[in-house]
């Protein structure tokens, strides 16, 4: 009998049997049968320390020996308290309150509910819609699907089921763009805000890097401009740093490139180094303090069963300690150097007729093609070279674990390039 496991994003008729992973070490995982693959995606971008990191494994073991789980409703514990303090310390100045949940999607649902309730409690119940961007991806739950790109996103068949929000065009200025070059993108945001601000509670964005929507990159000036527009129109700014958080763009958080503090920020993928599912929604005093009041409507009515799970909090604390002690930002910079040299600056790759664009930011690189059919077979090609790639749509990308060595990084970029150049 075939396995009853129903795989995500899989076409049941054409999917090939999934290889079985039996273990992993550093940037590689091992398949049943002994094949070892260098993971160019660090498992949907979360395994930033790679597999079987001794300090992370030990942190889970020790915590398991003390306390595996207890509800956060009416109770607290040390790992949750310590992790919340650490997150306040390392995130942009002013994010002083932490609401835990169990996945990036739920972290975003929490952010959107907070924004709506914030305005409600301040006497503006009409500000109950979101403003989001084309090419956005914020998760797969119903609330999140409604703020993903409605056309290119994966959720168009659900449009009749989803609430309606407002969309602005995806930013087009590059990461390096000057302030003037960002004006048109900001004008497009302003236009939607001018027309609809009375019903817009929050502007949502994946700062600098729209990840699952096609690895679209933009400038820190765009974040600063968005911050100013949100002030002008009494709209909360929500940064979904689920993918960009913990170093992916080259700074600890994408917000750090722009020196911007959002009103709400969501973290998940890198939070526990991928070792357990968890998420955090951080809020400023302004947001938090709006919930201090006498009516029963002042309580924030949300509480995932596994929020603040002690195992997840403990391994997240260890992940942060390793990140700082082992100078991960320095490692990311070295990986970035290889990605720029091998991919961004490769003239033959840029000139290849199938290639539309090559972009690099921090420890992220993408080769965008004109037509998705030119990536058919790329994953199998890479696997023959010992590399696990998982292209989607028109994007062949890598987001490696930060412990990936330079030789292994070149092995990954080599597999990506050779797919185009060695044929
Ligand atoms: C992955 C992702 C999410 C959803 O996180 P899950 O843990 O898969 O629910 C939300 N936003 C962004 C930017 C993501 O990359």
Automatic annotation (TrEMBL):
Catalytic activity: (8S)-8-amino-7-oxononanoate + S-adenosyl-L-methionine = S-adenosyl-4-methylsulfanyl-2-oxobutanoate + (7R,8S)-7,8-diammoniononanoate
Keyword annotations: Aminotransferase, Biotin biosynthesis, Cytoplasm, Pyridoxal phosphate, S-adenosyl-L-methionine, Transferase
Cellular component per GO, a single term: cytoplasm
Function: Catalyzes the transfer of the alpha-amino group from S-adenosyl-L-methionine (SAM) to 7-keto-8-aminopelargonic acid (KAPA) to form 7,8-diaminopelargonic acid (DAPA). It is the only aminotransferase known to utilize SAM as an amino donor.
Localization: Cytoplasm
InterPro entries referenced in this protein's UniProt entry, alphabetically: Aminotrans_3, Aminotrans_3_PPA_site, BioA, PyrdxlP-dep_Trfase, PyrdxlP-dep_Trfase_major, PyrdxlP-dep_Trfase_small
E.C. no: 2.6.1.62
Domain of life: Bacteria
Binding, pyridoxal 5'-phosphate: 104-105, 240, 304-305
GO BP annotation list: biotin biosynthetic process
Assembly notes: Homodimer.
HAMAP family found in the cross-reference section: BioA
Any Pfam family: Aminotran_3
N6-(pyridoxal phosphate)lysine modified-residue sites: 269
Protein name (Swiss-Prot/TrEMBL): Adenosylmethionine-8-amino-7-oxononanoate aminotransferase
Family designation: Belongs to the class-III pyridoxal-phosphate-dependent aminotransferase family. BioA subfamily.
Residues annotated for substrate binding in this entry: 44, 137, 269, 303, 390
Cofactor(s) recorded in Swiss-Prot or TrEMBL: pyridoxal 5'-phosphate
Species of origin: Halomonas nitroreducens
Pathway: Cofactor biosynthesis; biotin biosynthesis; 7,8-diaminononanoate from 8-amino-7-oxononanoate (SAM route): step 1/1
Molecular function, one GO term: pyridoxal phosphate binding
Source species taxonomy: Bacteria, Pseudomonadati, Pseudomonadota, Gammaproteobacteria, Oceanospirillales
First-tier enzyme category under EC: transferase
């Amino acid at each position: 009998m075939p396995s009853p496991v129903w795989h995500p994003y899989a076409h049941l008729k054409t999917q090939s049997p999934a290889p079985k992973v039996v273990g992993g070490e550093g940037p590689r995982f091992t398949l049943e049968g002994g094949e070892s693959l260098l993971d160019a995606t660090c498992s949907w971008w979360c395994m930033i320390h790679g597999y079987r990191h001794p300090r992370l494994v030990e942190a889970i073991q020790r915590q398991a020996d003390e306390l595996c789980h207890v509800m956060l409703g009416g109770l607290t514990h040390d790992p949750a308290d310590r992790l919340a303090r650490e997150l306040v310390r390392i995130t942009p100045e002013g994010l002083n309150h932490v609401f835990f949940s169990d996945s990036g999607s739920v972290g975003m649902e929490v952010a959107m509910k907070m924004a709506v309730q914030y305005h409600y409690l301040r006497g503006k119940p009409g500000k109950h819609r979101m403003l989001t961007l084309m090419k956005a991806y914020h998760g797969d739950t119903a609330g999140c699907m409604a703020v993903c790109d409605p056309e290119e996103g994966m959720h168009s068949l659900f449009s009749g089921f989803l609430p309606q929000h407002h969309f602005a065009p995806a930013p087009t200025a590059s990461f390096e763009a000057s302030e003037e070059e960002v004006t048109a993108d900001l004008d497009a945001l302003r236009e939607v805000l001018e027309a609809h601000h009375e019903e817009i509670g929050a502007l949502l964005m994946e700062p600098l890097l729209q990840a699952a929507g096609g690895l679209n990159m933009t400038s820190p000036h765009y974040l600063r401009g968005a911050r100013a527009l949100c002030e002008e129109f009494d709209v909360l700014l929500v940064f979904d740093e689920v993918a960009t958080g913990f170093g992916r763009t080259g700074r600890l958080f994408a917000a750090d490139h722009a020196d911007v503090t959002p009103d709400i920020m969501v973290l998940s993928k890198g939070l526990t180094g991928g070792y357990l599912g968890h998420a955090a929604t951080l809020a400023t005093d302004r947001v938090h303090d709006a919930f201090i009041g006498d009516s029963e409507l002042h309580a924030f009515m949300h509480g995932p069963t596994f929020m603040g799970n002690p195992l997840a909090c403990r391994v997240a604390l260890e992940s942060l300690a390793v990140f700082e002690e082992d100078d991960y930002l320095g490692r990311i910079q070295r990986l970035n150097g290889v990605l720029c040299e091998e991919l961004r600056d490769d003239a033959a790759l840029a000139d290849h007729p199938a290639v539309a664009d090559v972009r690099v930011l921090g420890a992220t690189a993408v080769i965008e093609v004109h037509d998705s059919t030119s990536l058919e077979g790329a994953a199998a090609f890479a696997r023959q070279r010992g590399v696990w790639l998982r292209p989607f749509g028109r994007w062949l990308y890598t987001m490696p674990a930060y412990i990936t060595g330079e030789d292994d990084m070149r092995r990954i970029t080599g597999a990506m390039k050779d797919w185009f150049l060695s044929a």
